[in-house]
TrEMBL record:
An annotated GO BP: carbohydrate derivative biosynthetic process
All residue ranges annotated as the Glycosyl transferase family domain in the record: 232-393
PANTHER family documented for this protein: SULFOQUINOVOSYL TRANSFERASE SQD2 (PTHR45947)
Domain Glycosyltransferase subfamily 4-like N-terminal: start-end pairs: 49-218
Protein name: D-inositol 3-phosphate glycosyltransferase
Species assigned in the record: Brachybacterium ginsengisoli
Keyword Cell cycle recorded: no
Length: 433
């Protein structure tokens, strides 16, 4: 989920599109009384690395820059609940048997709930549909404030975790999603692909398409000789000889990321001058290692294992082409990060990437081994063209993936939700989870 689109408003350039109505411009954040108080709730937070964590961290930073007072409610990595630097951590237990590194929040944390209610947020913005969503809904109902929700994950692509039947799994997801979102005041989605999906589920809440922005100061090409030397050192640490081209993938190693297909494509292309580097780790790594061995390409594949979030831009900078075959992305955030670091893209065709991959300009989408091999050769055998596509990828990221616009778009949703909700005197319920 680290997690997750002909230039329709389904990618980064679509800014705060509301399919059901036109959003008013954001009102002044800082009132004469106090800043707007926003509570972000998420089941995923540091030290986990995925697309949800990246999105929530970016949103938090941008809302603070806009003058909001922002706090986060998330799950602890253990049984103890605590509050640290504006982050409430609820005690939780492992749910790794269901999904790697997932956790379930404990039902009672009276002190945390009391602290949140005393702080009195103006908006609750939930980022997950499970443990912390229950808390988000409870807090919003108790204080009679808007509940905004971002739908990050296409769960029907994860049916292999909970259902032997994809058809039955999709029905479960449809019913579950419709029920959860019916209790919100507004729903934010990263692409038109997800918006169409939820409309098909029968979701009737206001849908706002707001792509996650990117910190373009952090995700950028190497600028200094020191950064270029660092990229060379990373290659050397993996035993990659000078002159070989690096096909890079940054992803959680899970079945739904479809990295089997990437290995298949690399085997069919059969280029001895390339090395595939899979940055990340996950439960599917043994299967991928076995597949690489069965394809006879073990010497052309490198697994980095877990990478610290702060180091991820370094790995992008050591690549030549970014590759992927996932069909479970809601936005394809890693593809956008790669573009911002100047990497052309070569990825499996998917609607969520339609505005990210401009065919023949920032990269290509492929269907089948023949297209993959042809496009890869076009990139690797023509250095001038690869350099042109690298600059085009960087320019597109700079033009369309501004984190500041992401923050402003979400703020507009908050202001609209507050304006629509009729003023009600908040009620205080007994402090219990």
């Amino acid at each position: 989920m680290r997690s997750g689109d002909a230039l329709a408003p389904s990618g980064c350039e679509s800014r705060g599109v509301n399919e059901n109505r036109t959003s008013p411009p954001p009102s002044q954040v800082i009132s004469p009384q106090r800043p707007l108080r926003v509570l972000l709730t998420t089941d995923w937070w540091e030290p986990v690395v995925n697309g949800v964590v990246a999105s929530v961290q970016t949103l938090r930073r941008e809302l603070i820059a806009l003058g909001c007072d922002v706090r986060v409610l998330t799950l602890s990595q253990g049984l103890r609940s605590r509050n640290e630097e504006g982050v409430y951590r609820l005690g939780s237990v492992s749910a790794s048997m269901v999904y790697d590194r997932a956790r379930i929040g404990m039902p009672t944390a009276r002190r945390v709930l009391r602290d949140v209610l005393d702080w009195r947020p103006d908006v609750v913005h939930s980022q997950a549909e499970f443990s912390t969503y229950v808390w988000a809904r409870r807090i919003a109902r108790t204080l009679s404030i808007p509940l905004v929700h971002t739908y990050h994950t296409i769960y029907e692509d994860y049916t292999h975790y909970y259902s032997p039947s994809r058809t039955m799994g999709r029905k479960v997801v449809e019913t579950f999603s419709r029920r959860v979102l019916s209790r919100t005041d507004a729903v934010i989605v990263p692409t038109q692909k997800v918006s169409r999906l939820l409309t098909g589920y029968g979701v009737l809440r206001p849908l706002h398409v707001i792509p996650t922005g990117l910190d373009l100061e952090r995700f950028r090409p190497a600028r200094t000789e020191e950064e270029h030397a660092d990229a060379r050192a990373l290659r050397a640490s993996l035993g990659i000889e000078p002159g070989r081209k690096v096909l890079l993938s940054v992803s959680r190693l899970a079945k739904e990321k479809n990295l089997d297909e990437v290995l298949d494509m690399v085997a069919v292309a059969d280029r001895e001058d390339t090395v595939l580097v899979l940055v990340g780790d996950g439960p599917y790594r043994p299967e991928l290692e076995a597949r690489a061995a069965s394809l006879g390409i073990t010497d052309r594949v490198r697994f980095t294992g877990v990478v610290a979030p702060a180091d991820i831009p370094r790995w992008y900078r050591m690549g030549d082409v970014f590759v992927g075959a996932s069909l479970s992305e809601t936005q394809g955030l890693t593809f956008i990060e790669a573009m911002a670091c100047g990497l052309p893209l070569l990825c499996r065709r998917d609607p969520s990437l339609a505005s990210v991959v401009v065919e023949g300009v920032t990269g290509w989408q492929f269907e089948g081994a023949a297209q993959f091999t042809s496009h890869l050769s076009a990139l690797l055998d023509d250095p001038i063209r690869r350099e042109q596509m690298s600059r085009a990828a960087l320019d597109r990221a700079l033009d369309t993936c501004d984190a500041k616009e992401f923050g402003r778009g979400v703020l507009r949703v908050y202001q609209e939700a507050r304006g629509v909700r009729a003023p009600v005197i908040a009620r205080r319920e007994p402090v219990a989870a």
